[in-house]
Amino acid sequence: MGLVSLGYVSGSCLGALWVCRLAGVGDPRLEGSGNPGFSNVLRLHGRRLAAVTLLLDAMKGMPALWLAMGLGLAPWAQGLVGLAVLLGHSYPPWHRFRGGKAVASAFGVLLVLTPWVALCCAALWVLLAWRVRTAAVASLASAGIAPLASLWLAPDYVLVVVTFTALVLVRHLLNIHRLRHGDEPGL
């Protein structure tokens, strides 16, 4: 239970808010899409701040996951710690439970638990973001491919990855609605 709590608390530290405050720029929750994440920071403040946001959000849950793996916890228990990181990012208590979409955090969690799945998803995200120029499409497709990639590359983690995918898809419901109506902002 302690590692799950550690995962949640570490996940609830939103990289975008720290980066924007330290850079002296506006709160990303008050501009653009209102999302405190990589894509909104990229649109608002450029590549450099977005890259640091991505790095922080991807790395923040890693210590808790390394501890879970080091203790020899079963894949499902490691998955609970990872899910706590994602829930912390999506629903941080000190920001009125209004957080990010958990894509960068999911990448970091998967990078620890299932590195090849994470790298496949990241490659697809980059390719789609470059071609389609819409972060939501890249994120949804990457999340959707993750369970299939885990079937092949990390079968012990399939249920864990399916759970992460479900959370990312739920966090993107508004984006799906905007995509259907042609209102989703591009990168």
TrEMBL record:
Question: Where in the cell is the protein located?
Answer: Cell membrane
- Any Pfam family: G3P_acyltransf
For this UniProt entry, which segments traverse the membrane?
64-87, 107-130, 150-170
Give the main location: membrane
UniProt topology in membrane: Multi-pass membrane protein
Span of the secretion signal?
Answer: none
**Pathway the protein takes part in:** Lipid metabolism; phospholipid metabolism
The record's section on SMART domains has: G3P_acyltransf
Does the keyword field hold Membrane?
A: yes
The record's EC number reads 2.3.1.275
For this protein, the record's NCBIfam families field holds: glycerol-3-phosphate 1-O-acyltransferase PlsY
Which family, according to UniProt? Belongs to the PlsY family.
Function recorded in the entry: Catalyzes the transfer of an acyl group from acyl-phosphate (acyl-PO(4)) to glycerol-3-phosphate (G3P) to form lysophosphatidic acid (LPA). This enzyme utilizes acyl-phosphate as fatty acyl donor, but not acyl-CoA or acyl-ACP.
Protein name, as recorded? Glycerol-3-phosphate acyltransferase
Classification lineage: Bacteria, Pseudomonadati, Pseudomonadota, Gammaproteobacteria, Oceanospirillales
Gene of this entry = plsY
